[in-house]
UniProtKB/TrEMBL annotation:
Molecular functions per Gene Ontology: hydrolase activity, acting on carbon-nitrogen (but not peptide) bonds, in cyclic amides
GO CC annotations, alphabetized: cytosol
Superkingdom of the organism of origin: Bacteria
Organism of this sequence: Candidatus Zambryskibacteria bacterium RIFCSPLOWO2_01_FULL_45_43
Protein known as: Amidohydrolase-related domain-containing protein
Higher taxonomy: Bacteria, Candidatus Zambryskiibacteriota
InterPro entries listed in its UniProt record: Metal-dep_hydrolase_composite, Metal_Hydrolase, Metallo-dep_Hydrolases_sf
Amino acid sequence: MILIKNTTIIDGTGKPPFKGDVLIKDDRISAIGTLVNQKADQVIDGLGLTVAPGFINTNTDSDHYLSLLTSPLQKDFLLQGITTIIGGLCGSSLAPLLYGSLKSIRKWTDINQVNINWQTLAQFKDSLHQLRLGVNFGTLVGHSTVRRDLIGEEIRDLTQGELDILKEALKLALKEGALGLSTGLGYTHSRVVPYSEIKSLLPVVAQYHGVYATHLRDEQENLLKSVEETILAAQESGVPTIISHFRPIIGFEDQFLQAIKLIEGSLSSANIYFDVNPFNVSVVPIYTLLPQWAQHNNLEAMSEIIDNSLHLPKIKQDFQRRISQLEDAVIVEAQGNPSLDNVSLKNFSENRGLALPEAVAELMNITRMKALIYYKNINSDLLSQVLLHQRALIGTNSASLDNDPSIIMLERSTQTFSRYIAAAESKNIPLEEIIKRITSVPAKIFGIGKRGVLREGWFADCAILKNKKVVGTIVNGVVAVSNGSLAAARGSGVPL
């Protein structure tokens, strides 16, 4: 048993802080109150500390980067007070796999890092149990993952038979605990997926009380149209709907402001949210830098376009148009070319004696489109406003990479929640309201039972703060972080 004595408690409901003790037995909160004569195996002096529910990271890429499997402790998240993470976003999940293919995530990482020994979500959960995760992990069903298992690299509408198989796969995964469905409509394989297909899947999600999360079909020129489509999906299905990594892209701020007004105006008929993080950078697959007319079929086809001397001048002109953003870009990861990891595009171009547009094309050619780029493309002023919006959910939109020296460490992997708390505090939002927004609110939206609130009989997921900074984390009754440092070599998290 663990007893946290004489502490300040913020229970996650929005209720004002109160003084008391918290008793943890096994993986549950056994008692909250004034526990004068209570004995325990471990007593934590809570004087000067605040105990809150563990934070919920509503958008993670640890599954996309496979670090969920290769670095299961997920320490970058534990050190922030995060006890639960959500994956399977942007249309790509690690389960279910009809035929064992992870092609939908190869734009993020080398899919040959792991051996697949599962197909269903239940089988995947069994694998995660054996890994001893550091955090609890819940996943949505990746629409693109299942769809590409069905039709391979073809870009076309599904037949009725194929759609029926997709529905059955979705239904089984939801029965086995999937939290909902995600789409990646901004990526090449899903950009032409008809709205009617999404609409036909959402009643299945509604039947199992899941959520729908979407990477918008277009975050730039057609942002408004994309948001309207998402609102319509929420209205017609009644499913809680989340726009993934909603961000004000530089050059499209007016559309973004109009999109916010559309969302606010739809709230009486659509249960819609968006996730966001406090950083003005994006990490994108390198192929997304291509003009949209060149983004089609698969990575191999796009590589051929770069090789085509007829198309290349036009592509370089498009790169030249965005030269100010690309000058500050950094190569996060170049699959098969580790010497290029963490190298700026500017240095890459100078080392090869190339102009920057030519260097981007060269990098695409060298990596055959299997590279990730980090660059500043988000309006910071607008971002700071939307970060504190009532419909905003907080997600790192990154992986815990556990200080992998080969990959650039992003601040959003390690500082998202501390930055969010500081930003909210600067606007005089009470700490109890801040905690509610990152605990009980997402737990309710995603249907995560008995987490997100400090309550007797509920799971003992806790964040311990000192001066509003996380110094301790407890996951399912096990101290994972103590005094700001990792306290456990193996994790106590579970697949949800």
